[in-house]
Amino acid sequence: MIKREAEKMVEEINKTFRVLLVTGPRQVGKTTLLLNLKPKNMEYVSLDDEILRKQAQEDPKLFLSMHPAPLLIDEVQYAPQLFPYIKINVDNEKKRGMYWLTGSQQFKLMKNVTESLAGRVGIVNLNSLSYSEVIGNENKLPFDPFNFYKVSEINVNELYEHIFKGGMPELYDIKGMNKTNFFEGYINTYLSRDVKEQSNVSDLLEFKKFMVALASRNGEQLNYSSISKELGITDKTVKSWINILVTSGIVYLLEPYMSSKIKRITHIPKVIFMDTGLASYLAGWDNARDLQMSSSSGHYLETFVISEIIKSYNAIGIEPNISYYRDKEKNEIDLIFYRNNKLIPFEIKKTAMPNVDMIKNFKKLENTGKEIGEGGIICFYEMLTKLNRDNYIIPISSVINISKNDKKI
To answer: Nearest 5°: phi and psi at 252?
Structure first.
């Protein structure tokens, strides 16, 4: 059983909120997480069961009477009719941890939650397994751009094996699980259960082609026109379908840094698949070695590092304030943290020989009027060290696998 970083967050929310909601893509371990942590007196019901789902939809008040709190409701997005009655019950009882809910973060779910349970619900956004969870680092710390740690080096070949495989728990829980077979079933289930039932998409085959087209652009700027021309659909449809993947937690859009003092900067987000294993499957990669040696390897490394940062912050209930920079002359900075009124820039490079020229675009941020913090190059160099006076060489391990026991510099 793999220990999840979000366990502490679940326990904290249970002590302070009347309702806990764990959201995230299908099959990332939401139900498993809560079943392992729930109190013994808490009943479990799943709305995947058609009979229970129909009861919850048609008579939500009676359903909650038949299943009194404390109650864990799985796949709650199928019965939004429950939310007003959950609100009534928690307002009457005023007890902590009365209801635990899980649901794919999609479509109408979050709107229903925020409207009905505002101030009463604590939310955990769960993703697929992080690298540190897979290797059993139970003292994981999120990457802090103000504090760098010396961490044991990660072998580049082993890391690309992980990037190729991704972090879906079932690939690690079931020995010998074939990745292709898993993701074929995963996509079919996602299309038939989530996309078909919870959206207006009528052509599921076309939507699957759209996912493939987007995966081939993993780590790139989101060009709506390019995708619409490739698939023969409208820009409006592309934007609508992107929103489905974003609200499902499958894709994250890394927004560009915006500044009123810099006129010639892009307004286009970057596509970040939150599970690189899913992206590599959709894009047709057969093995880790071919991916590692391809022209796409840099994009996959970049999206992997960014997704790992997002996962670690989600696990502690924080949304990282991150962006990227690109101007009309195509000068780019891969990742920017904005903290304490400072911009901290980072390049993410597939190299073991970083150099100062790789951070030349950091100077572009001087025109923002913000203070620039010490950033650096995240790469495969074997140790944490200074690149120059204001920037560091940062091993990838010092971003994705920090432990409380590691030494801070």
So the answer is: -115, 135
User: CA torsion, points 26, 27, 31, 32, in degrees to nearest 10?
Assistant: -160
Q: Which residue reads 């989600």 in tokens?
A: 314
Q: Which of 359, 361, 390 is nearest to 257 (CA)?
A: 361
Helix (H) or strand (E) holding 339: strand 332-339
Q: Which pair of structure tokens corresponds to residue 38? A: 């729930």
Domain boundaries, the chain: 7-125, 131-408
**DSSP letter assigned to residue 363:** G
Q: Alpha-carbon Rg of the chain, whole angstroms?
A: 22
Helical residues (DSSP H) of 151-296, grouped into ranges: 156-165, 170-173, 179-189, 196-198, 204-215, 224-231, 235-247, 276-282, 288-292
- The residues with which 103 forms a beta bridge, in sequence order, are 23
- In the 8-state DSSP scheme, what is residue 67? S
What CATH architecture applies to the domain 7-125? 3-Layer(aba) Sandwich (3.40)
Is residue 359 within 8 A of residue 348, CB to CB? The reply is no
End-to-end CA distance of the chain: 33
* Amino acid found at 389: R
Rounded to whole angstroms, how far apart are CA atoms 294 and 292? 6
> CB 163: neighbour CB atoms within 10 A?
25
d(CA 332, CA 335): 9
What the block records as the tokens of 280 is 């590599």
Helix, strand or coil for residue 185?
helix
C-alpha to C-alpha distance for 234 and 236, rounded to whole angstroms: 5
- Residue ranges for the chain with pLDDT beneath 50: none
Position 107 scores a pLDDT of 52
